[in-house]
Amino acid sequence: xxxxxxxxxxxxxxxxxxxxxxxxxxxxxxxxxxxxxxxxxxxxxxxxxxxxxxxxxxxxxxxxxxxxxxxxxxxxxxxxxxxxxxxxxxxxxxxxxxxxxxxxxxxxxxxxxxxxxxxxxxxxxxxxxxxxxxxxxxxxxxxxxxxxxxxxxxxxxxxxxxxxxxxxxxxxxxxxxxxxxxxxxxxxxxxxxxxxxxxxxxxxxxxxxxxxxxxxxxxxxxxxxxxxxxxxxxxxxxxxxxxxxxxxxxxxxxxxxxxxxxxxxxxxxxxxxxxxxxxxxxxxxxxxxxxxxxxxxxxxxxxxxxxxxxxxxxxxxxxxxxxxxxxxxxxxxxxxxxxxxxxxxxxxxxxxxxxxxxxxxxxxxxxxxxxxxxxxxxxx
Length: 380
Known about the structure:
This protein is an alpha/beta fold. 48% of the residues lie in helices and 15% in strands. The protein contains 17 helices and 11 strands. It has a 7-stranded parallel beta sheet with strand order 4-3-2-1-5-6-7, with helices on both faces. Strands 9-8-10-11 form a 4-stranded mixed beta sheet, with helices on one face. The longest helix is centred in the C-terminal third of the chain and has 19 residues, at 361-379.
């Protein structure tokens, strides 16, 4: 059993992590959220952690007042989140924060030598080589929570690494598979948030609809598994049953299959290298019947092509891609720009923001801020 610091406990991954913790008997030592203190208070009273932190200071003050009848420490702001990430009583940090905001807490948990159950893909998208080097130096394990990367991780068990020929990275295709660019022009946020297979947060769901999520996952896989983009093939798999696969040098393919239930990869990240019973639903292949695979449509969904471009350019290009995309998605959700404006805004940032070849925290944050400024300008 593990002791968890759940960073981003009120989001989709965070709440499902707590379901797994309750089912499998893991201790919850720390909980953090941005400002959803109604749910955070409920979680704190259920799991009684050592500390709870809210990134928003006003929300943290309100939470402290509500939890005054308990002995739970309540912390505020970025420092509070970082203290939760470093908490000595937690041996595992579940990094379920959204966006580049997850980078600093993930590094803090890594420097504390914890196991990282990584659900914040932007950390590796923006700073993959730096993060992996820090983990190796600190002796921290990084076990992926994304269903695709968990599938790859599981399919590589027992491998020595040299036998790997390529990674087969699957994508659901989102709610608009088969749509033309003309049809996509009228997409609204409400329609884009209706994913056919997965229940996820708003940002990830929109990224899935544009296929940017698959581009971010390609960048994440490059760092996690130390492969160039040329060794990753993306396949649209509508059923979301085969979560990804590995092809070996002898042309044998090992895949991981399961119901589209995020509790399964969350549980595996906590229990690895062991497997335990848990709350995920079983897979009924007879009910599924058919598994289908298609190539992605890069013309209708140019966000994926932009991510591949950033992967090949390297340096801070992925951080520029990610920062601009975060802005564009937020503006789309607020109905300030259209669905097809998302790739236009991201491309504008990639075309105009200078990139640095050397990855440092300073160069990454500078690229992120410049990309956000360029994206804001392109949204006007």
